[in-house]
Amino acid sequence: MSDSIKMVETLNKGRSLVSCRPLKAGEIVLKDSPILLYSAVPHGADVGANYCSHCFRTIPNSPHSPTKFHCPNCTTATLFCSPNCQSIALSTSHTPFVCQSLTLLRALDSLPHDHHLQVRFLISAYNLAMVSPSHFQTLLSLQGQTFTDDASLTFLHTFISSTPNVGSFGFSVELTAALLAKDKLNAFGLMEPFDQSKERSVRAYGIYPRASFFNHDCLPNACRFDYVDSVVECGSNTDIVVRVIHDLPEGREICLSYFPVNLKYSERQTSLKEDYGFTCDCDRCKVEANWSDDEEEEEDMDDDGDDDGDGDGDGDDGMRVDLETEYFPHAYFFARYMCNKENCWGTLAPLPPGDARPSTVMECNVCGNLSKCEVS
């Protein structure tokens, strides 16, 4: 995958990504592009009201904003941020098949939001089979548990089977179920910009074929960044970047957290079981499994009260230890690697090291805040 990570088979975990060599804090281990993107705009909203329907950049809504470019063939208010996005989309992500399918979807006013998202995914997945069979095969090769909601499956397959031109590709109920399983286990959310005053929501979901192999840990040693609204010099604005948050030895598995690290043990376990089908037994969970809810609340209060946000370890009550020891105290993780901006709960990673020297600037993967830190 790169000169820094490789895929291996891990007991009880399946495919995992591990370091090929010692890694420095802040080092980029993966840049990955999506093979499929679909909108997460709430049901009933105009498809292109806020974002480009191809690259998902925010389209400014002001008299001084650039001209908005519409799809010339559909009635779903699909917008693009530029003639280039419009041109690319009409032959890739917004083909006549997608156009006609979204028009049918728009007529289903009473469709629950979860079903709305699943239909959007299926439209994008079936379109992928038409425009890029190799990427469609990559999608099918990803891990995914059996989709068992028979009532939902029947409805979703009936809808997608009624869309124009889909019958000629031989799609079946079994294939629909397999695709939905891939989406459930592998989709990454491209998020709205951080706003302290409201809950952060998803603007789009994407399937990133290489990033999907990162396993979860409740004390991750890496985190992912996306820069959807940025102007990027290399690659696409919808690429995601994964950086390690501290030094790692060769052969260490690289893990992300599938949700904000501040969640309690019971919340984490429920989310992992319902969304990903497994129970976590990482080092942190082994410690917190016997805690009561009161103990977890007290721990949260201690973390909030002690962390002065400068990453110097003063808030860990003398618990600074080597990161490789067996009993890695999560109090230290919270003090050094969790953003202290109100309502953020993001993970901090150093900027990529330069000239073989570690960076002294930490970046939050949620709010984007940059802060100074001491090099340990």
Automatic annotation (TrEMBL):
Alphabetized Gene3D superfamilies for the sequence: 1.10.220.160, 6.10.140.2220, SET domain
Q: Region (Disordered) spans which residues?
A: 291-320
Q: For the SET domain, which residue ranges apply? A: 3-259
CDD domains, alphabetically? SET_SMYD
Q: Which PROSITE patterns match?
A: SET
Cross-referenced Pfam families: SET (PF00856)
Tell me which domain of life the UniProt entry assigns to the organism this sequence originates from. Eukaryota
Q: Check the record and name the SUPFAM superfamilies matching this protein.
A: SET domain (SSF82199)
Q: What are the Acidic residues biased-composition ranges?
A: 291-316
Q: Which SMART domains match?
A: SET (SM00317)
Q: What is this protein called?
A: SET domain-containing protein
Q: Which organism is it from?
A: Penstemon smallii
